Structure formats: structure tokens, C-alpha cells
């Protein structure tokens, strides 16, 4: 962002007045606003003053606008110094505003700045022939064609140091120039031509507006409704086919040939179905464990000892 200061006294004119045509235009602008709100016309008036004064605003023009609108000169000065569209320094016949914001910087704006310095000189100075001056500005909204510059009221895009230098020379010598992309592409389409929206029907008016569009839209809607109805019917049919038959056994229903006893077993028992039951062979019960003769034989000696140690009360005489 450049420093916003008034031009040195050496270049300031002693006075400024709108010419007759512009005075008339200015009065029309002021008349657009309600009584007491004339200050709202400050920007159009400053713009017209700049136009009349070779593209820049001297102090005298700012003061003339203040007088015209009944404003304090400082209030007008605040507006003029805030908006970068107002040039406070003299500009060349071709005023180059070079974008230096990130997208343009990434695409080579620094190299273009160097061209400006070489061909024109420092920022905000006019070449000796009065033809060129330049200023670095913030994004001008043409980032898709970066890097770019605005020269007077035209955008020049897709610049390179080579084509920019040639452009400045053409301007300096009054040769015709072609605003827009400088690399041959149209607008911001891909380099080498557009890749989408190539159907000619998009551009002959048959797709929008022209022709019997109401009939076409009605037919399209009817076809869409019929397709939706057919789809819904097919889905309903498929659902019906998938539905289980009332007399067919359900795949996941419990088998009806299960034994009644199993079915009647309490939940706790059935829940432990995987667990071996004490009565099953090979799973000795506690009684079986107590029976030393797991194989059916009884050791008489151990049995006698057992009887002796555990002797039942009935074996003992009651005293
Ligand atoms: S950054 Fe340069 S035009 Fe947007």
C-alpha cells in the first residue's frame, strides 16, 4: 500500500474550478440528494474533479469540492486520502496500476515491478515525456489471470516481463494495444481452449428461452413423473416378492420337532445347555467321587478303614 500524501507544493496548481460542462454535471449529482444531504455527493464530485485535472487530485480541487458541498475541507481530504481510486500525485497519460497482491506475486508480479522500474522509473513519478507512471496496488480482482495491471481503465492480464515491456513500449509510442489476456487465451478459460460447456446447443438459444420451451419443460416433467412412478412400482413389487409366505416356516423360527421336554426345561437349564450334566457318563458326581470303586470294585481294606473312621452313630452302642 502506497503512502497517501498530497503532491508536493511545486506541482500543486494555484486554483481549481469545474468547467461549464462539469459544473452542470456536478449540479445534477448534488440535486439527487435530499436537502441537507449534499455531502453524499462527495465521491462523484472528487471523481469528476480528478477526471478534469489529468487524472489526479490537487489540493485546490479538494477545496473546491468542499466549497461546493458546504463541507469542511478536512472532511473532503479524509475521503480523498482514504480511497486509492483518487490519485494524489500527478500521473502519466498511461497510468499503470500494477497488482502486487499474493496471487499476482506468486505468478511473477515482482518481475513486472522490475520492468516498471526499468522502463518508467520509481513509483508515482511520471516519465519525462509525460506518457507513463506506475503504482503498485492491491488485488484488482482478476487473480485468475494473474499477474495483471490496470492501465487507465483497461485490464491487461497474463503478463510476462516480455509482453509487459512490449505493452509499455506500445503505449508510449501510441500504438494500438489489446486489453485482456496477453497470452492468447479468452477470458480466464484454460490455456489452449475451453474443456467444458462445448455443446453448441448451449449457445444457440434452444436450451434456454428460445423455441417452444414451455412444451419441452412440460414433457420433461411428465417423463420424470412417469419414471418416478415406474420406479416406485418396481420397488413395491420387489418388496412383495421378498415378503415371507404366511404358511412357510420362518428360517429363524425354532424347530417344531424339538422334544417337548427340552422345550419345557426351565430357562436356567437350557441356558447351560453346553455345560455337561452331572449325570452324564464320564462326569463323576460327588457321590461317585465318594465311591472309590469307580470301576465297580471295592477294596475291602480301605472300605473297612473308611467305615471305622466315619462310623455311623448306629454302629455305636447308645449309652
Ligand atoms: S491478486 Fe492480482 S488481481 Fe487479485
What's the main sheet like?
5 strands, mixed
State the separation between the terminal residues, measured CA to CA. Answer: 125 Å
Strand content: 5-15%
Number of helices: 12
Oligomer: single chain
Mean pLDDT: 82
Name the helix and strand elements from N-terminus to C-terminus, one letter apiece. Answer: HHHHEHHEEEHEHHHHH
Computed Rg: 50 Å
Bound small-molecule species: FE2/S2 (inorganic) cluster
**Would you report the number of β strands?**
5
Principal-axis shape equals: elongated
SS-derived structural category: alpha/beta
Low-confidence stretches: 253-300, 302-319
Supply the key terms.
319 residues; alpha/beta; five-stranded mixed beta sheet; disordered C terminus; binds FE2/S2 (inorganic) cluster
Describe the secondary-structure layout.
Blueprint: H1 20-31, H2 42-52, H3 59-69, H4 73-82, E1 94-99, H5 102-106, H6 109-119, E2 132-137, E3 149-151, E4 154-157, H7 161-172, E5 180-181, H8 213-242, H9 260-264, H10 267-271, H11 286-290, H12 300-309
Parallel strand pairs: 1-2, 4-5
Antiparallel strand pairs: 1-3, 3-4
Helix pairs in contact: 2-3, 3-4, 6-7
The chain binds FE2/S2 (inorganic) cluster.
FE2/S2 (inorganic) cluster binds next to helix 5.
Amino acid at each position: 500500500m502506497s503512502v497517501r500524501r498530497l503532491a508536493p507544493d511545486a506541482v500543486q496548481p494555484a486554483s481549481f474550478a469545474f468547467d461549464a460542462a462539469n459544473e452542470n454535471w456536478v449540479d445534477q449529482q448534488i440535486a439527487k440528494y435530499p436537502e441537507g444531504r449534499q455531502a453524499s455527493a462527495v465521491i462523484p464530485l472528487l471523481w469528476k474533479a480528478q477526471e478534469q485535472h489529468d487524472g489526479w487530485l490537487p489540493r485546490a480541487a479538494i477545496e473546491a469540492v468542499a466549497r461546493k458541498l458546504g463541507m469542511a475541507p478536512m472532511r473532503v481530504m479524509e475521503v480523498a486520502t482514504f480511497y486509492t481510486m483518487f490519485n494524489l500525485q500527478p500521473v502519466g497519460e498511461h497510468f499503470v496500476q500494477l497488482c502486487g497482491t499474493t496471487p499476482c506475486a506468486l505468478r511473477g508480479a515482482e518481475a513486472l515491478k522490475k520492468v516498471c522500474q526499468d522502463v518508467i522509473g520509481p513509483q508515482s513519478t511520471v516519465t519525462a515525456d509525460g506518457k507513463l507512471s506506475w503504482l503498485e496496488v492491491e488485488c484488482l480482482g482478476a487473480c485468475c489471470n494473474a499477474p495483471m495491471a490496470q492501465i487507465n481503465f483497461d485490464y491487461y492480464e497474463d503478463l510476462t516481463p516480455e509482453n509487459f515491456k512490449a505493452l509499455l513500449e506500445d503505449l508510449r509510442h501510441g500504438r494500438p494495444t489489446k486489453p485482456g489476456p496477453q497470452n492468447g487465451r479468452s477470458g480466464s478459460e484454460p490455456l489452449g481452449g475451453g474443456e467444458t460447456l462445448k455443446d453448441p446447443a448451449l449457445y444457440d438459444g434452444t436450451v434456454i428461452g428460445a423455441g417452444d420451451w414451455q412444451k419441452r419443460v412440460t414433457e420433461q416433467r411428465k417423463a420424470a413423473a412417469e419414471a418416478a412412478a415406474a420406479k416406485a412400482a418396481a420397488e413395491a413389487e420387489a418388496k412383495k416378492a421378498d415378503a415371507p409366505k404366511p404358511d412357510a416356516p420362518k428360517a429363524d423360527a425354532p424347530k417344531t420337532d424339538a422334544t417337548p421336554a427340552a422345550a419345557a426345561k426351565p430357562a436356567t437349564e437350557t441356558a447351560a445347555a453346553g455345560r455337561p450334566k452331572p449325570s452324564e457318563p464320564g462326569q463323576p458326581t460327588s457321590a461317585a467321587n465318594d465311591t472309590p470303586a469307580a470301576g465297580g470294585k471295592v477294596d475291602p481294606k480301605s472300605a473297612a478303614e473308611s467305615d471305622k473312621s466315619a462310623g455311623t452313630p448306629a454302629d455305636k452302642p447308645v449309652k
